[in-house]
Design a protein that fits this description.
The chain is mainly alpha-helical and 251 residues long. The protein has a single domain, classed as MetI-like (MetI-like fold), CATH 1.10.3720.10. The protein has 12 helices and 2 strands, in the order ββαααααααααααα. It has a two-stranded antiparallel ribbon. A hairpin with a 2-residue loop joins β1 and β2. The radius of gyration is 22 Å and the shape is globular.
Length: 251
């Protein structure tokens, strides 16, 4: 970002908000917003504790499993919608509906069907992540040049071979974009699932901190989640940039 002829790092806005947060906290205007410096100290205290590590393991396990299911279902479904006009007309309205719907309201429905266990939390993660993966995969397939498919048919490739060797690689930039956005949405999904379905993992810590008005602990946990989401987004964004050359070979 260029400001008055000087290059300003993108992280500068975060530093400005950090300073504002610290000032508001130091004035002690409300107990809900403690100073950022206190929150960072509390973060360093709670991260090594057994309760945090146990919550991290539970949350990470359900998060990873839910995203693996979302990718395994979303990518083939997106390919199908991109390749079949009939499937696209049937499924696209539903995909758009679930993408724009308030998914939190659907969590109790999943809870009634599958109970209060970890299965419901995993399905909540899938519900939050899968739709954007489907749409981005569909966009990538639709951006493919028809000559790639024609070449595969000329060489006698089956649908499975075309899927593994043509469609996935040609749509890889969009697929990775969908996975990145799906992972970010899944962070919200796993916390909502743990809060509404079964008070475990980070959801349990949020419940403890908020009910006991431990706001420094509460904000420290939120910052940890923001950090995880940022790391995931940056890692997948870096991977996207590494495979951008595929986009140039599709046309």
């Amino acid at each position: 970002m260029i400001l008055y002829g000087y290059r300003v790092p993108m992280m500068a806005s975060l530093l400005i908000w950090a300073v504002v947060w610290e000032i508001v906290g130091q004035f002690d205007l409300t107990m809900m917003v403690p100073p950022l410096s206190n929150v960072l100290v509390r973060m360093a205290e709670i991260v090594p504790t057994p309760s945090f590590l146990d919550a991290l393991w539970i949350t990470g396990r359900t998060f990873l499993l839910g995203n693996l299911i979302a990718v395994a279902c979303g990518v083939p479904l997106g390919v199908l919608m991109g390749r079949s006009v009939l499937a696209d007309r049937i499924l696209l309205p539903w995909v758009n509906l679930f993408l724009s719907a308030p998914l939190t309201a659907l969590v109790p429905v999943i809870m009634v069907i599958f109970g209060f266990g970890e299965t419901t939390i995993v399905l909540t993660v899938v519900l939050f992540a899968v739709w954007i993966i489907v749409l981005d995969t569909r966009a990538g397939i639709r951006n493919m040049t028809p000559s790639l498919v024609e070449m595969a048919r000329c060489y006698g490739a089956s649908e499975a071979q075309a899927f593994a060797k043509i469609y996935l690689w040609a749509a890889l930039p969009e697929i990775l974009t969908g996975i990145r956005l799906g992972f970010i949405r899944a962070v919200k999904g796993v916390v909502i699932g743990q809060l509404l379905v079964s008070i475990v993992g980070f959801g349990r810590l949020f419940e403890i901190y908020s009910s006991n008005f431990l706001m420094e602990h509460f904000w420290a946990l939120i910052l940890v989640l923001f950090f995880f989401a940022f790391v995931i987004a940056e890692a997948l964004g870096h991977l996207e940039r590494r495979v951008e050359y595929y986009a140039a070979t599709r046309h």
